[in-house]
Write the C-alpha cells for this entry.
Amino acid sequence: MLTLYDYLPSQNAWKVRLLLNHLDIPYRTEIVRIFEGEGQRPDFLAVNPTGAVPALRLPDGRTLAESNAILTYLAHGTPYLPSDPFGGAKVQQWLSFEQDHVASIATLRHWTLTGKLARRAPALVDRLRRVADKALAILDRELTQRPFIAGAAYTIADMSLFAYVHRADEAGLALADYPGIVGWIARVRAQPGFLGTVHPYSIDPLSGGELP
Ligand SMILES: N[C@@H](CCC(=O)N[C@@H](CS)C(=O)NCC(=O)O)C(=O)O
C-alpha cells in the first residue's frame, strides 16, 4: 500500500490527497509534525531531502517527494494527465507556473493564518503580494478562455493550482476580483471525487512557531 507523509494543514499535501480521492486509491498516512522538527529527522530526510511534506512511499519502498512530481507519478495512465507529448508538456508548463508563481500565495496564507505576517519585513510581504496578484491576474485571463488550465479537460495542473488559489482570500487576496478564477473554482468543485475537507492550522498549536 502507498504511504503518504502528510501534515494535515498543508495544501501541498492536500493536492495529493485530492488526486488519491479522485482515483479512489487506498493509502496509509504518516503524519510529519513539521513545526516540531520531525521533517528534519534523519529517517524523514532519507524520504525527502528537503524535510518537507508531502512525500510518498511506494509499496516496494521507493520514495518520491515534491507535490507536483507525486501528482505526475500517480496520474500516469489516467485521464488526469494527457498521454500525448504536447498535452503532457502543457500540464508540466502549468505545474511549473504553480511552483514559481503560486507558491507566493502559499507563503502569504501560512504567515497570515499563523500570525507571522506582522513579524515579516514589509518589503518582503509587498514583493510576495505583487507576485501573487500577478499570478492571479494571469490565471484569471487564461481561465476565461477555456474551462481548465491546460485545455478542455480537468488535469493535475488544475489540482495543483487549485490547492492554494482557492484559498487566496486567506492570504489577504480578494478572489472576487477574478471572475475567471471564481468560475473555474466551481468547475473544479463539481468534479467526481472532489475532496472538500481542508484542515486549518489551528489544529496544530505549534504552527504559530517558526519551521526549523
Ligand atoms: N515544493 C514543495 C513544497 C513543500 C512544502 O513547502 N511543504 C511545507 C508544508 S506546505 C513543509 O513541509 N514545510 C516544512 C519545511 O519546509 O521544513 C512541494 O510542492 O511539495
Notes: The helical segments are 11-23, 42-45, 67-75, 85-113, 122-143, 156-165, 179-189. The chain has two domains: 2-78+196-208, 85-189. The domain at 2-78+196-208 is CATH 3.40.30.10 (Glutaredoxin).
